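During data preparation, a discrete fold description was generated, and the record follows.
___
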Amino acid sequence: MKFLWARHSCPLDSLWSLARETAVTIESKPMLDVILIAIGSGLFLVAIAYAYACDRL
């Protein structure tokens, strides 16, 4: 198993380097962020309304 560790001091080093490379290349789309926050907030409000409706039964 030592041959797997020959290039990196830690087995997760290759994953961390890959994560750093992709984190730099991925750009956020502000409109998509707004849409996802709106959908999440809407679902949260629906869950609260559902809880109140079930409580009244």
The chain has a mean pLDDT of 78. The helical segments are 13-25, 30-56.
